[in-house]
Write a structure and sequence with these properties.
elongated
């Protein structure tokens, strides 16, 4: 038990650190979860446009981060509930059932621990900040070989042509004058003729390892669902008579506040 308690202290610090790190990563909506691929080919006589060329890879996905997080969480919960099982051995238990699936027979101490876990503010905030992709865009499973098997999604490749407007000064002809016999110091009138020209061809495609908004909402819904069942189970397991506390409460408080010892015939 001493060894288990020491291990629990370590795993508690570890899981709190993980939750904090993941919250920061999710909150920043960093480019770790997003990528893009851009190509450009200039038409003859025109220059390349470097800003239209590039390949930013998706570094990680929400699934990959949670898959790394899960062993840490499982280890922490295993040690936590091993301690509670040892402390409450022989106590009344109630089966925890969610959607027909049993999660074990738990004591009141187990259920209180589970309730505390499910209402843990940093954990809820971390889950609430899971990055999600836009629902206004159409996403499909990625077909790019470099992302094979990683639950990464892509948009359709956008293709287009870049254009620019070129201006050319044109001399206007005067129908009243003979071009071969222009007056001295004649200044011809000019105008600017504009034309749109195509300068190159580009493609653009987005990639993401983010969840859908529905996936995140479903995770938060399942947390609420589990919490509701835990609260109901607590009501059931606590439906017993109240026992006198093992702790001499008056004596304890008096000693804590005054350093005095109460005897049996004394009261605060």
């Amino acid at each position: 038990m001493n060894t288990l308690l020491a291990k629990l202290d370590h795993s508690t610090a570890n899981i709190n650190s993980c939750i904090s790190d993941f919250y920061t990563l999710f909150k920043q909506r960093s480019n770790f979860f997003r990528g893009e691929k851009k190509t450009f080919k200039a038409r003859e006589g025109y220059l390349d446009e470097p800003s239209r060329i590039g390949n930013t890879q998706v570094i990680t996905t929400v699934d990959e981060k949670l898959q790394w997080f899960e062993p840490q969480l499982i280890n922490y919960l295993t040690e936590l509930f091993s301690v509670e099982a040892t402390n409450s051995k022989g106590a009344k238990t109630v089966e925890l059932v969610v959607n027909g699936q049993s999660f074990g027979h738990l004591t009141a101490l187990d259920l209180m621990r589970l309730k505390n876990f499910l209402t843990n503010s940093p954990l809820i905030t971390m889950y609430s900040e899971i990055p999600t992709r836009s629902d206004s865009e159409i996403w499909e499973e990625c077909t790019d070989d470099e992302y094979d098997g990683r639950n990464i999604y892509q948009t359709e490749i956008q293709k287009g042509t870049t254009r620019t407007t070129e201006a050319e000064e044109v001399i206007l002809k005067d129908p009243n004058l003979d071009p071969q016999h222009l007056p001295n110091n004649y200044q011809a009138k000019t105008t600017v003729k504009k034309k749109v020209v195509e300068t190159g061809d580009y493609t653009y495609q987005k990639f993401t390892g983010e969840w859908t908004q529905r996936q995140r909402a479903e995770l938060l819904r399942r947390r609420s669902e589990l919490l509701a069942v835990v609260i109901e189970a607590l009501k059931e397991v606590n439906d017993v008579g109240v026992e006198k506390p093992n702790l001499e409460v008056n004596k304890f408080v008096n000693y804590l506040h005054r350093g005095e010892i109460l005897y049996l015939d004394q009261k605060l």
